[in-house]
Amino acid sequence: MPTILTSVKASQRLDSRGKPTVQVEVETRDGKFRAIVPSGASKGDYEAIELRDGGEAYGGNGVEQAVRNVQEIIGPALSGRQFDLELGLKDVDYFMIKLDGSSDKSDLGANAILGVSMACARACAAAKKIPLYDFLASELQSRHKEYVVPVPFFNVLNGGVHSGNTMAFQEFMIAPTGAASITQGIQWAAEVYQALKSIIIKKFGKAAIGIGDEGGFAPPITRPSEALDLIMAAIEAAGHEGRFRIGIDPASSEFYRDGDYDLGFKSDTPQRYTSTELADLYRSLVDKYPIVLLEDPFAQDDWDSWKSFHIISKLANIELVGDDLLATNIRRIEMAAKADACDSLLLKINQIGTISEAIAAAERAYELGWSVFVSHRSGETTDDFIADLTVAIGCGHLKSGAPCRGERVAKYNRLMDIEEELEARNLGSSYAGESFRHAHS
Ligand code: PGA
Ligand code: ZN
């Protein structure tokens, strides 16, 4: 007897910024399976389109149309096809892509389609009576032998469009590469986070410990070196010197202005950098701090800057990650490969809109010899889907914000559950540690 969908429902719920998002619930004979869709703030131009209603309610951010598209179009169409979920997710996803018919999912909405894709993945896993990470791993063309537990990159200082300070760079991340397990790495990061809080109170007063969209602190600082000095001091104060590496996501498309970069875009005084000057700034930071990863150092269409900086980043052994540049889209990945513009894919499931396409993007990145870095969005929910996805594709690292705020720690907590479960199942898993970039190979 095949496992078919007996019902597909959607509802409007809230994300971590208090903005509406799509929740989907599918039903099979195994039970009900839910998913809630995330949403970005520093969105790239090449992402799949999430439908927003416009109008008065929720300042135009309602998702009632996307909800109706699930209830009235996608649900009935899927039910009519009677897909056997024991055979996997691809047929469901590629059917929805066809049903939408657009190149960017703007017809039915990437938020509608992704919610169904995620919920159906959970239903597929239940049909096969296996954990979600096992199911998602079975969807890969080329299975890796052993599970790898990822290194979490914790965004402990928030800037850019995720906070109200004048820091232009969006994310300063700490990665416990020296830990023996993710459980230990999370403990260390939580200790550094608390030390950072004390240092911020001492330096800027208690009013400065407000946090940004991803749970990191947002003290009144402007220069990237100020952020990095605070982080280094916190690592030292927590007694974890030498155990962490650092990643930065400037999210530079947000401050790209007519060919230059305005690091003063959040203040009244412009601070214009040419791309060469910005590259020099990155170089000076890389020389001084234990930075191993740079994401979107240049804007999504500033190909020449990406290309010339990639030569430098390779020499310095820095992972160069494309977020807005690639938008988890194979067409953009091919463009970047041709241009030799970067060597790592930031994987955000809602940038492309189905789990099958996200997995295909990761596999294409691997074929190119790249690494893959899984990511949450700044507008999140307590849905922990990406924890399972990261383990399934074996990519060795993910970012899910600070070790703080329910929607951020949901993913880290799930990863600790998975680590324990893999041990109990004797599956010979390992923590990616220093080899986070090439954990899959
Ligand atoms: P976003 O931020 O979800 O607001 O796009 C995350 C990122 O830029 O990586
Ligand atoms: Zn980014």
From TrEMBL:
Comment on bound cofactor: Mg(2+) is required for catalysis and for stabilizing the dimer.
GO cellular component, alphabetical, reads: phosphopyruvate hydratase complex
Q: What class does this enzyme belong to in the EC scheme?
A: lyase
Record-linked Gene3D superfamilies: Enolase-like C-terminal domain, Enolase-like, N-terminal domain
One GO biological process this protein is involved in is: glycolytic process
Q: Which UniProt keywords apply?
A: Glycolysis, Lyase, Magnesium, Metal-binding, Pyruvate
- The residues the record assigns to binding substrate are H162, E171, E295, D323, S375, H376, R377, S378, K399
Coiled coil where? none
Protein's name in the database: Enolase
Q: Which organism is it from?
A: Exophiala xenobiotica
